[in-house]
Amino acid sequence: QVQLVESGGGLVQAGGSLRLSCAASGSAVSIISMGWYRQAPGNQRELVAIINSGGNTNYADSVKGRFTISRDNAKNTMYLQMNSLKPEDTAVYYCYQDCLMVADRRTYWGQGTQVTVSS
User: Fold this and answer.
1) Cα 32 to the center of its chain, rounded Å
2) CB–CB of 82/17 below 8 Å?
3) According to DSSP H, which parts of the chain are helical?
4) How far apart are CA 79 and CA 68, in angstroms?
5) Is residue 103 classed as helix, strand or coil in its secondary structure?
6) Separation CA 6–CA 8 (nearest Å)
7) Per-residue confidence in pLDDT tens, the chain, 119 aa
8) Which of 42, 48, 55, 78 could cross-link with 36 by S-S, CB 3.0 to 4.6 Å?
């Protein structure tokens, strides 16, 4: 089992910054990929950023150049640095890990953290 706990959300004015953290506990044989999704009211959950086991990253077009995903393997923590925030970034942000376990492959999710950007 893997447990993920997000933190760092909050209320910020447009143009401001926030850094989200996703702390992982538990164990997996390996982590295939990890990243962040977000879901705004009335919208489907959308991929924001992803980092794979090789350290390669990919971003949604809407956040390219503003958001940076990173990880600290020693701390088992992943981050999402969000700069130049816009009101349309308002959503609940979820972190996930796609893990190879002993018996199968599983995806784990955090509980979500609210990000609200005021205009």
Assistant:
1) 15
2) yes
3) none
4) 8
5) coil
6) 7
7) 899 999 999 999 999 999 999 999 988 888 889 999 999 999 999 999 999 989 999 999 999 999 999 999 899 999 999 999 999 999 999 999 999 888 898 999 999 999 999 99
8) 48
Token reading at 13:
């004015």
CA-based nearest residue to 30, from 104, 101, 106, 107: 101
Cα gap 39→36, rounded to integer Å: 10
Find, among 119, 104, 97, the residue nearest to 16 by Cα: 119
CA atoms within 13 A of residue 10's CA, in its CB half-sphere: 11
Written as six digits, the tokens of 3 are 């447990």
In angstroms, what CA-CA distances link 43 with 26, 37, 67, 87, 112? 31, 12, 20, 15, 15
